[in-house]
Amino acid sequence: SFVTSTSLLPPLGKKMRAYGSIREYSTGVVFGLPIMPTAAPTTQDNGEEAEAEEARAIEATKTWCWPSGYAAKTEFNIDSRGNLINGREEALVTIKQMRLNNIDYITKQDYEISGRLVKGGLTTVPYNEVFLRVGGIGSVGIDGKDIDTGIPASYQHGVGLPIALFVRSASYGHLISLLRTRARVEHWLPSLKKTKIPLLYITPETGVRVLTESMEQELLQIVSRNLNPFQNPTIAYKTMIESTDNAVQLDQKREELLDLDGEMIQKTLTPEERARLAGGFGATDDSVAQLLMEAMKQDENEQEIRANGSDSSSHEGKSRNHLQDIVNEGLASAVRSGDYHTARQLLILYTLVASKGHQKHEQKPPRLEDKPGDVHMIEDGDLINQTHGDSDSDDGVIVTKQAGLSLSNKTIPPPPPPPPPLDTDRLRSATNSDGLLAVLGAAQVLKAMRNGGAKRRVMECVSAIDEWVEHGENSMVFRLASWRDQHAAQADLKIAMEHDSSFMAFISGKAISNRKAFANRLREASEQTNMDGVRFLESIHNMVSKMHSPCLRLELLQFILGLDNRFSVAHLTRSVELAATCLNVSSNDSAVISGATTAANASSSSMEPLY
Fold first, then answer.
1. How far is Cα 252 from Cα 7, in angstroms, rounded to an integer?
2. Distance from C-alpha of 90 to C-alpha of 84, rounded to nearest angstrom
């Protein structure tokens, strides 16, 4: 528990504004004041006894109250021993007087504010202040009692957890901020997720209104269809791909992910709308994985129908790849919001879900017509190459691990191939974000590996380099002309070059040796790998890491992987690393997709609201 400043609003939450500007403090939490044992009076004496008991508890626990309009500024006016200074103690009022003042603001035209009588009243009165302890023993629920021990909330130990969250404006930005705040609160206080904490809309003009579940679904529907997606503006600039030292903001971004697994959400929103919310605003891994699994299952069902030949006429010309469509929808929304993290999440989970589908297909019972090559037998002493990755690593440092296994008559399934290709050409042309280019570039790298484009283009590049080397070794004039052409290309801002080409490298023959070595590494990569796994990406990563001022070599790698000329060495490195992370995750046997989560109905509370 901890102490903090709050405000006790008038009945129905009307007339009084909360602390701070709506722009900076758009959302807040509601606490409930402890209910005294005699707080349900049957006679006037019982009521007075309850008030006296509450006053004694407030005084004993240093719970302080200041009237409306008084700026207590407790952060500056409490000494090291916990005592009030600078006249703040003399300005204290009782909580009974504060309640009477709140009733006057609603029922009377003339009332007192800051010791002055205001005739005719004010449209909006300033906030009052209650400095008290929140939280409590264990996890105090919204019924005011500890979940485990049943100990009631108190001024001494804490008034408990929030009983509601509220927003001060009905703008779409602030409503989305409210949903993100709820996700963050439920992340740290899982007990509130079980009770489904209420959401409120509070303004001085209209008072308290409840954001019902049906209204929330309607809000998400409108947002997914008509609203341009956006990140949390307070942390967006601190969570870009270049921001590596802002762990607090990155943690907050993960905590604010929306849960789209609710039964009502699945009934209200289409898969495409949920994908837009996931890509544009962020959703939990479980939500995104469940969405992708549903799309993959739909694809499998349609494939099975076509394979069985049932009602083939109705499905003719309607074949769709629902999984790829859903991912592309989410990536498009991520591009619109400029969110590198949600795009990266979609790509990694898409690779993982696709690999699960591939494994499921490969695990079908073998048939008599299966070829011998369909089963992979490992003899004693064979060397197995394994790749291990962590989806939480920063665009995956490529990790390869070799382990000698002595297995006899063991069936080892081959690593899953890259996922089915995604069409990201249009999305890549629509963004200049370094982070999004890394994600979309990784999708293109996986596509080139999956459809065999990279394998076909490698030998073309090797032949082109060999031809350049042959001419360069025999003619300095050719090398100088080549340098001039490269130097002119670097003046074009559309060409991604790290530095100007070194003139002396072409004169001394350094350029020839660099390109010879590059051709040899490409040739080795083509001969020693299938060019559809992590080993190929490791070879590309090693080549890129040794480049200093590449020109032709960079252009050839862009050509091999199907990337445009905006991909510099840094962009290419990030894309290859992320593609390797995707394959590492999909080949890791321990990777498991969590199931859906369920939410309980919110319980009612009779506690007095404290905002």
1. 26
2. 9
Closest CA to 93 of 138, 50, 43, 59: 59
Taking alpha carbons only, the member of 390, 289, 391, 389 closest to residue 330 is 289
Alpha helices in 532-568 (DSSP H): 534-545, 552-561
**DSSP summary character for residue 42:** S
Angle between helices 476-490 and 510-528 (to 10 degrees): 80
Task: Give the residue with greater pLDDT, 448 vs 493.
Answer: 448
Tokens standing for residue 489: 């290309």
Supply 269's token pair.
């929103």
Q: Annotate 24-49 with b (16+ C-beta within 10 A) or e (fewer).
A: eebbbbbbbbbbbebbeeeeeeeeeb
Return d(Cα 187, Cα 589) in angstroms, integer: 27
| Residue 120 Rama label (left phi>0; alpha psi -120 to 50; beta) | left
The radius of gyration of the chain's CA atoms, rounded to the nearest angstrom, is 32
Would the pLDDT of 118 be above 70? yes
Strands (E) across 347-387 are located at: 377-378, 383-387
pLDDT, tens digit, 9 for 90 and up, residues 54-65? 888 898 999 999
* DSSP letter (8 states) at residue 258: B
Nearest in space to 257 (alpha carbons), one of 345, 148, 388, 139: 345
Calculate the alpha carbon distances from 570 to 229, 494, 555, 564 in Å. Answer: 28, 15, 14, 14
Angstrom distances, CA of residue 39 to CA of 35, 43, 52, 415: 6, 11, 11, 67
With 0.85 as the threshold, say if the pTM is over it: no
**Mean pLDDT of the 455-469 span:** 85
Quote the CA–CA distance of 398 and 587 in Å, as a whole number: 13
Helix (H) or strand (E) segment spanning residue 569: helix 569-587
Is beta strand 164-167 parallel, antiparallel or unpaired with respect to 199-203? parallel
Nearest to 472 by CA among 28, 501, 94, 464: 464
